[in-house]
Amino acid sequence: MNRVNVVDQALDLLDEVGLDAVSTRRLAKRLGVEQPSLYYHFRNKEELLGAMAEAAMAPHGTAPLPQPGDPWRDWFLENTRSFRRTLLMRRDGARLHSGHLPGGVDLDRIAHKMRFLLASGLPERDAQMAMLAAGRYTVGSVLEEQANTGPAVEADHPIVPTIDNESAFEAGLALIVDGLAQRAGA
């Protein structure tokens, strides 16, 4: 048993039972060890959840970084879509991610992305707020999507149209990007 194996098994447990049912007791049983053995690798459940969140985000962490000359708009859209796809890969992925701040390599990647947006001519504060807004919008969208097991509204509701999760996400993302483009042009 090592730290990577514990996290992998914890993520598999998450996919099977959901975040509310993940416990160190249940994980220890799955690993065939006594619960205190887990504390050799993680001081507490919160530390384990942080490691799980970091590991769950690994697919997004391997997405290509923007290169000079890339259109910022295309990159921004794909980066946000990649984030959404990664959150959706795990049951309760958005809940697991929520509240865990990036560190280390992730911060370096974020700094690279910000430098790219600034080099593309976007005002610094607008680029920062757009990245923050897109991230929070994505987490919120996925939270709703993963929590919703039925239709959000009745079909043919007079005020809220029936729309699938991906189309709704894309429509909101377009509003964020269009707003950033408008600010960039001002």
Automatic annotation (TrEMBL):
UniProt-recorded Gene Ontology molecular function terms: DNA-binding transcription factor activity; transcription cis-regulatory region binding
Keyword tags: DNA-binding, Repressor, Transcription, Transcription regulation
Keyword Cytoplasm among UniProt keywords: no
Gene3D superfamilies: Homeodomain-like, Tetracycline Repressor, domain 2
Lineage, top ranks: Bacteria, Bacillati, Actinomycetota, Actinomycetes, Kitasatosporales
PANTHER family in alphabetical order: HTH-TYPE TRANSCRIPTIONAL REGULATOR RUTR (PTHR30055), TRANSCRIPTIONAL REGULATORY PROTEIN (PTHR30055:SF151)
Protein name, UniProt field: TetR family transcriptional regulator
Cytoplasm keyword on record: no
Domain HTH tetR-type intervals: 1-60
Source organism of the structure: Embleya scabrispora
Domain of life, per lineage: Bacteria
Pfam families registered for this protein in UniProt: TetR_C_1, TetR_N
Membrane-spanning parts: none
DNA-binding region: 23-42
InterPro entries to which the protein is assigned, alphabetical: DNA-bd_HTH_TetR-type_CS, Homeodomain-like_sf, HTH-type_TetR-like_transc_reg, HTH_TetR, Repressor_TetR_C, Tet_transcr_reg_TetR, Tet_transcr_reg_TetR-rel_C_sf
BP GO annotations: negative regulation of DNA-templated transcription; response to antibiotic
